[in-house]
């Protein structure tokens, strides 16, 4: 009988089905394997912004908690945030600064999970003055690619925002 080679994914599926986990691998609540003691979740990302007042008003209108300090604007959701660096901070940064050297507005592409209805999402987008530019079914990040319904808009600086609703 020929020996059949298993892909890594097939091996993990079989191990999970048998109730075992390979050494150094933990099974998450979703059934996917993850390494213990490694990356748990995203804390924050940072982008440069140009239109500070418009960006603050836009994200507040969408329902985000927005904090402003002398160093940055930050937009909070759950335990994560987006730091938005003022033009004075990123335009005059040294090449060795702690930022991506080619990052200029618009450079963000963000996707949030929307837990309300499509009508509630549209009401929030209307409050923010955001125009839908595309929508449809997409593979999301849940469980390695669960499909959801996405709505795409742009913020005042032109960053792409996706709102995904899982059903």
Defining traits:
about 170 residues, alpha+beta, 2,3-Dihydroxybiphenyl 1,2-Dioxygenase, domain 1, 2 domains, 4-stranded mixed beta sheet, 4 helices, about 20% helix
- If you compute it from the alpha carbons, what radius of gyration comes out, rounded to the nearest whole angstrom? 20 Å
Average pLDDT figure = 81
Q: What would the principal axes of the Cα set say about the shape?
A: globular
* Proportion of residues in extended strands: 25-35%
Description:
This protein is 21% helix and 31% strand. It has helices spanning 8-17, 52-61, 87-90, 118-128; strands spanning 25-27, 33-35, 44-48, 65-68, 72-77, 80-85, 109-113, 134-139, 147-154, 160-165. Mean pLDDT is 81; it is low at 20-27. The strands form three sheets. It has a four-stranded mixed beta sheet. A four-stranded mixed beta sheet has the order 7-10-9-8, with helices on one face. It folds into two domains: 1-39, no CATH class; 44-165, 2,3-Dihydroxybiphenyl 1,2-Dioxygenase, domain 1. Helix 2 runs antiparallel to helix 4 (118-128). The relative contact order is 0.15. The chain is globular. With 167 residues, it is an alpha+beta fold.
Short description:
This protein has 167 residues and is an alpha+beta fold.
Strands, helices and their partners?
Blueprint: H1 8-17, E1 25-27, E2 33-35, E3 44-48, H2 52-61, E4 65-68, E5 72-77, E6 80-85, H3 87-90, E7 109-113, H4 118-128, E8 134-139, E9 147-154, E10 160-165
Parallel strand pairs: 3-6, 7-10
Antiparallel strand pairs: 1-2, 4-5, 5-6, 8-9, 9-10
Helix pairs in contact: 2-4
């Amino acid at each position: 009988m020929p020996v059949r080679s298993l892909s890594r994914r097939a091996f993990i599926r079989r191990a999970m089905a048998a109730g075992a986990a390979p050494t150094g691998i933990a099974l998450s609540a979703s059934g996917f394997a993850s390494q213990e003691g490694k990356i748990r979740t995203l804390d924050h990302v940072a982008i440069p912004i140009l239109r500070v007042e418009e960006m603050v008003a836009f994200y507040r209108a969408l329902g985000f908690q927005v904090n402003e300090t002398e160093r940055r604007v930050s937009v909070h959701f759950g335990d994560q945030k987006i730091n938005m660096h003022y033009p004075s901070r990123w335009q005059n940064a040294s090449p060795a600064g702690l930022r991506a050297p080619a990052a200029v507005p618009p450079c963000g592409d963000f996707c949030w999970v929307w837990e309300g209805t499509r009508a509630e999402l549209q009401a929030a987008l209307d409050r923010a003055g955001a125009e839908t530019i595309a929508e449809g079914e997409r593979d999301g990040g849940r469980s390695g690619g669960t499909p959801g319904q996405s709505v795409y808009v742009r913020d005042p600086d032109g960053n792409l925002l996706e709102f995904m609703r899982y059903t």
